[in-house]
Amino acid sequence: MTEFFQQLINGLAFGSILALIALGYTMVYGILRFINFAHGDIFMLGAFAGFYLAPKIAAVLPTPSIAAGLVVMGIAMAICAALGIVIERLAYRPLRSSPKLTVLITAIGVSLFLEYTGQLVFGAAPKSFPALIPSYPLTHLGGLSINSNQAVVLGVTLLLLASLRFIVQKTKIGMAMRALAFNPEAASLMGINTDVVISFTFGLGSALAAAAGILWAINYPSIDPLMGILPGLKAFVAAVLGGIGNLPGAVLGGLIIGITETFVSGYISSTYRDAIAFGVLILILLIKPSGLLGKKEIEKV
Amino acid sequence: MRFKHAKLFLVGAVVLCFLVSLVENRINSYWLFISYDIGINIILAVSLNLINGYTGQFSLGHAGFMAVGGYTAAVITNQFGALNSFAAGAVFLGALLAGGLLAAVTGFLVGLPTLRLRGDYLAIVTLGFGEIIRVIFQNMNAVGGARGLSVMHGWTNFFWAFGFAAVTIYVVTALVHSTYGRGFIAVRDDEVAAEAMGINTTKYKVTAFVVGAFFAGIAGGLYAHSKQFLTPGGFNFMESIAIVVMVILGGMGNTPGVVIAAILLTLLPEGLRAIAGIEHFPGVAREFPFSWVGNARMIIYSLLLIVLMLTRPQGLFSWRKQFKSATP
Fold first, then answer.
1. Above 0.90 for ipTM, yes or no?
2. What is the DSSP letter of A84?
3. Residue-range domains of chain A with CATH
4. Is the C or the N end of chain B the one with fewer CB within 10 Å?
5. In 10 A of CB A296, how many CB atoms?
6. How many angstroms away from the CA of B271 is the closest CA of chain A?
7. What residue spans define the domains of chain B?
8. Which of A187, A155, A183, A191 is nearest to A70 (CA)?
9. Residue B42 Cα to chain centre, angstroms
10. pTM of the model
């Protein structure tokens, strides 16, 4: 029973990081109807931004401390948001009226470019992420070991989800995002500046991915330029599982994938863990392509 | 492109390959191994072009089919000891075909979900299938798992590599230009309209996957008997991307362009290696994707993809004006 709860907690921490990445996929898909393949690499860049920022911050603030962690995460989020906006501006915006396949191929290109330029700039060897925040075991109740890092992951994720919900539901730009997702043409006829809203969406998604990158690096402190590929794909699967375009769905999907994967590697075999997400994806697309919380779309000719 | 003298091309090319293979031990072995890679990549790119280019079903799992064919052929030929050249040829042909057939069965299984998926979803599902195939091989102790599998016989030669390349080009082109094959292009251009015209789109999509996977499997067998060592990591999704880049660079649905692109992109790492001054070890190159050469190759691929899509989405070697996708 202890092992069960242990796996559940590990799965929750992993799943909430996936959920943060999945939100970026689902927001962009909701508005532009395309898979931003490069999103997983923004997650990687977030972790690397943290890696290079940490020594600079350590000169100003005492590290490891909560304040240093928050500052590093904030700056990394800002950097990645800017990067996401720039990528959209340069690579995706010129293709907005192109066939979907063209945009998909471009996105794959951007993803490969970030990964391999990353290898050239950062080096291919894994780097160990510095201790940003103080880490100590919270409890050893009955053999159950919960680390403060896991609590931080869950807490930060909840905080970010709450702020995202506030932005999307209560602010003007959030309302514009929802309008655009509902009907882009009608939205632009109502005087919504489509380009600004799309840029904002990319920025928001990229900032969440950067936060996920930092949280990942705090929890699994070995980072390399290809680290974004698998979490990116799994987060995409999570977004599809929850119903792509649906924000609560992305979170639900992320948690389900994270917990399932942790249980499979804990109880069955860790060598199969990377195949789990894809198996889930194929099943969900065969059984219920609209996802758990998604609404069915009718295809018009 | 019209393909009028198809059979003449096929017979001529196969005879030519046979003649060259007779004198191949006089050729520098470095260039010989690169020529095998070129033949194998032509097979891969042309067969993927049937799926991605002509039928418009964007697949990202070609390396998975290649792995199935490669492992199957290698396991079969490893059962045999030294053979005389005639028996070796017969066994090798049988092994390659068996690998191709098993890959085709896999292609059928992957083709099934395409009945209801399109565009991005299909791309990611085929990617998923490719990765699942890789993970399965990684966990299969009978074929060495993650440690890899040694292939005893280095039977791939100029004749086999380019003979099969010629057969692939012939089959794909003849298929697409036949009355039956027009259906592939109809499915790509407008699936709904094709269906309304009475075309069984499902059958065409699955056929494209089965035929494409068959030749990818053959290419896998040739690869196995050229490098003589297989690792599951060699068939990861970067390898699929490399094949996709060949198809896109050549122009989706443009076989001559794809052949040119396959040749150029096979030579690209060699050129980069020459620039970097790194010594070449035949067969080792693919096992070091993170070297400088691998890095530069992937950066060039990615930039090619982005710049091509922004400026010339129909491909470098294609003169068609419009680029049509499965999902307009």
1. no
2. H
3. 2-136+145-287 (1.10.3470)
4. N
5. 9
6. 19
7. 6-235
8. A155
9. 7
10. 0.86
